[in-house]
Amino acid sequence: MRWKNAAVLALALLAVGCSSNSKKELPPADLPDITEEVTLSKGWSRSVGDGQGSTYNLLVPAVDGDTIFAADVDGVVMALNRFNGDVIWKKDFELPVSGAVGVGYGLVMFGTLKGEVVALDATNGEEKWRARVKGEVLAPPANNGDVVVVQTQNDSLVGFDAATGNQRWIYENTPAVLTLRGTGAPIVTNNLAVAGLSTGKVLALDIQRGIPVWESRVAVPQGRSELDRVVDIDGGLLLSGGTLYVATYQGRVAALELESGRVLWEREASSYAGVAQGFGNVYVSLANGSVEGVDERSASALWTNDALARRQLSAPEVFSSYVAVGDYEGYLHLLSQVDGHFVGREKIDGDGLRARPLVVGEWVYAFGNSGKLVGLTIR
Fold first, then answer.
1. Can you give the residue ranges of every domain in the chain?
2. Is the model's pLDDT at 183 over the cut of 70?
């Protein structure tokens, strides 16, 4: 088990995009000069504790109405006005937070390295309930108002009563022998709990009973070594209408029909970060540092921007007519959705920017590794 944990940490570093059989590791690409066509304007900036911490956490903030919620690695949870950054409430739980934050239906939820799940009252930050699972919680819990669903590092899914925290069901999976460090957040609807697994599969459960409804394999492990056969779904799932989008490491990016799991289209890709969708296209941050735009109708690449090679990109997010993506030096880049060329850039955090940007309306929120949370608009 210790060997496996060490390998998990090593793979998190491996995923920067260099081939395991390369003779010499190439450095991250230098930033290219760009002609700014739009300017990102910082509306406000606040510090949220120690941010992501030294382990490979992806503590993405969440918005509910006019409030943005964020948590740091040591258990500081904050609610802020998303338009001006004013603090509404702040709590320090002194917990090793690793999966944060999920919001909705009056709850703010997070998970910990010790297998704890904590639900707070969104209005004042008071703890409503606390539950325990068997395994680290590396992604935010999800909530449909009735059931809170949590995915653990060992690919188990657990359903809790949203009002009381009592466990309703558990569905255990057998994880891959080796995995990247991380899991994507589950998606919940009125009927389904959907999760991406370390085995390259997407699983949908009946949300009331925790029994399988469908299972779809997106990536097939290939290669002689266990390293070659890693096909984790770590970037999370994206739901748009009735279509589910997913990307795997050393596998594929695909679109699935939500109700049946039927694969609508797929193409080869390797991503540990995730995807975004807009204007009939899907955008992927690839493991090698390229950003790719994919036409949903043909499943072919519309454009590829490889100028950020090996810069450890965050997941992309659609912002206005652009694609926003962060990198290891803390820059937030804006790319054109049409052809992928750079249109703008802003330095957010010198310690890096690995959490997915969060877009709500005319605002984009970036949470830097050191804990700097910034709200930006286009000027």
1. 48-146
2. yes
